[in-house]
Known about the structure:
Rossmann fold, 8 helices, nine-stranded mixed β-sheet, binds zinc ion, single chain, about 20% helix, five-stranded antiparallel β-sheet, alpha+beta
Amino acid sequence: MKALKNVSFILLLSIIVWSCKDDIIDPTNIEKGMIEGIVTSANGSKAIGGAIVFVLDGEEVYHAYTDATGNFNLEAPIGTQTLHIQTGDGTNFRTSTEVNIEKDQTTTIDASNARLNQVANIAYVVGSFDEIQLVINSLGYSADEITYADLSNYNLISQYDIIFLNCGSNGMDFINTDPSLAAFVTNGGSLYASDWAASYLVGGNGTGTCDAEGGFMANDKLCTSRTGQVTTIMGAQVVDASLAASTGFNNLDIEYDAPQWDMITNYDANYWDVLISDPSTNDALMIRSNQFADASSVGDPVGNNGDGWITICHIPPGNPDNPITITVSANSWDAHEAHGDTMGPCDNTDTSGTIYYTTFHTHAGGLNHDNSEAILEYVVLNL
Ligand SMILES: [Zn+2]
């Protein structure tokens, strides 16, 4: 009898403990499984490092990043879930796929469902020394060719999300497209400019005078000088941690195969992030900014305008110090707003696009076939 009483007591206690646990939302009690896969470019030919993979479940965003070989392992709640794969802030390249996650099991995503799709409308201006369009095409993506003259036509360029400005696309002429390019970046357009194409940003024809005519960026933000020599910079440093993690290397040799390349002589460190630098001179060789915004140019968003998707800064309810930038269906905004998320990427309250300036680029005759090509692939996917 005594024994039976003890059993009843333990049973009663168990029910109380069980009930309490039910009342408290404890993420450690959620049944989970693993998802694994390899993220590649649209044509399946290149593994994509640094892509975020995530599952939205209630207030939680379960996320992981692909390593340099494109592999990921993500733990997420069981059931049928939508797996999102994105690079950059998710506005230009992304994929979603349904996945059935089983308790304590690992589900492998089929390679065909882990290919990163091009969402962005992309254009490029043909250059004399750089053919970034070959890198774009090698990943299985496409870009429209537009002319230097087209850049002054805002109605035309505002259809695009990204414009690639190849080195030498305007020869030695002064560049004067500033109002349209300023409006393009302010309203969310992203730019790639290589070497002599610095003139689009800061004006002049690369003679090295920081107060040159033209360009849409203030003179104190960037200055370049066409004084680079034919050289190979050995062991150039990848100083940006996410770029290093995405490519899997911290150093690379960069070949400058033509003289008079545009050296970065001065830049505003509060405005630009340095991605790659010269280890002996500490000169910046590749920089990125999303700080440009011209209040007088604010207008309708450029490009595909999200197409029903919005980029947000998700603030994890239990981990507010580690916000993440993701792009989600606009329908889910109310739920995200309710737990304190903000509209736009975490590192920028403006809606402006990203600018990459690189002193090195593809070789005049085509692709590089070395580590600098992997860097340029990263730039394409993270604009
Ligand atoms: Zn959220």
